[in-house]
Write a structure and sequence with these properties.
CATH class: Alpha Beta
Number of helices: 10
Strand order of the largest sheet: 6-3-7-2-8-1-10-9
Bound molecules: 3,4-dihydroxybenzoic acid, fe (iii) ion
Largest sheet: 8 strands, mixed
Protein name: Protocatechuate 3,4-dioxygenase
Low-confidence stretches: none
Structural class: alpha/beta
Number of domains: 1
Order of helices and strands: EHHHEEEEHEHEHEHHHHEE
GO molecular function: ferrous iron binding; protocatechuate 4,5-dioxygenase activity
Mean pLDDT: 98
InterPro entries: PCA_45_Dioxygenase_B, Xdiol_dOase_suB
Helix content: 25-40%
Shape: globular
Keywords: Dioxygenase, Oxidoreductase
CATH superfamily: LigB-like
Length: about 290
């Protein structure tokens, strides 16, 4: 059967992608940020998954305000990097896994989560920046991402957005779905976006290091408790875009300690850095024991 062996959590700031695409990663501003991902890039090589189930949010790129799915699973064979206003990022196309994606859609919808099935969409920085951070520079002409990716988009842009508890429970359903797939493959689940940031209004630029680090602690040790945190706490403490962090609970809910029987996951890597553009960058790699 298929198995989720690890989860990865990382922020997705678009300026990080731009820094990589323009060869600025060694500049004084960016070097400390990228150093925090040196371990992760080696870890990706040493622990190469067969498929990445990548939870992210679209920023009104694939889904305009005309139509906003709460949870959308990408079932296509491939996804192109989106044009977000400066042209598409020069990174490889994302190869999907239609067979596993369809299986997960079937299983998760039958577990009473209403997913939107998306057979065609472009993917924005919410998905491509985490891939770039974890996999390093890739030339779209000669390189490919290391494995197929199932994009899973969550609405954290237009209220009402899903609660942390619903995201956590969805992660539990995704784990069951993966474990009922009959091929013996290794799946990683990624939760992306966050940490504290606010891009607009009177509190634009807000960063809350203490709250972010407490979030990381709770995500590791007490995800059941963290899932109960209401929206207002994310927005008050981590800023309006801090709400992106509910997506991390989907990936955490899919880890094997949540419904047992398994111990807490091993923390393979933990990193926190301020700032990247307007955002605090948090990053964790958790391995199932
Ligand atoms: C920034 C952060 C985001 O999450 C985003 O989607 C866009 C911009 C920023 O910090 O600049
Ligand atoms: Fe964002």
């Amino acid at each position: 059967m298929a198995r989720i062996t690890a989860s990865v959590f990382t922020s997705h700031v678009p300026a990080i992608g731009a820094a990589m695409d323009m060869g600025k990663t060694q500049e004084a501003y960016w070097a400390p940020l990228f150093k925090g991902y040196d371990f992760s890039r080696q870890w990706m090589k040493d622990n190469k998954p067969d498929v990445i189930f990548l939870v992210y949010n679209d920023h009104a790129t694939a889904f305009s305000l005309d139509c906003i799915p709460t949870f959308a699973i990408g079932t296509a064979a491939e996804f192109q990097p989106a044009d977000e206003g400066w042209g598409p990022r020069p990174v490889p196309k994302v190869v999907g896994h239609p067979d596993l994606a369809s299986h997960i859609a079937q299983s998760v919808i039958q577990q009473d989560f209403d997913l939107t099935i998306v057979n065609k969409m472009d993917v924005d920085h919410g998905l491509t920046v985490p891939l770039s951070l974890m996999c390093g520079e890739k030339d779209p002409k000669t390189d490919a991402w290391p494995c197929p990716v199932i994009p899973f988009a969550v609405n954290v842009v237009q209220y009402p957005v899903p609660s942390g508890q619903r995201c956590f429970n969805l992660g539990r359903a995704i784990r069951k779905a993966v474990e009922s797939y009959d091929k013996d493959i290794n799946v990683h689940i990624w939760g992306t976006g966050g940490m504290s940031h606010q891009l607009q209004g009177a509190r634009a630029g807000l960063i809350n290091k203490e709250w972010d680090n407490q979030f990381l602690d709770l995500l590791i040790d007490n995800p059941h408790g963290l899932a109960k945190m209401p929206h207002i706490d994310y927005v008050r403490e981590a800023g309006s875009e801090g709400i992106e962090l509910v997506m991390w609970l989907i990936a955490r809910g899919a880890m094997s300690d949540v419904d047992g029987p398994a111990p807490l996951p091993k923390v393979a890597h933990r990193f926190y850095h301020v700032p990247a553009s307007n955002t605090a960058v948090g990053h964790l790699i958790l391995e199932n024991q």
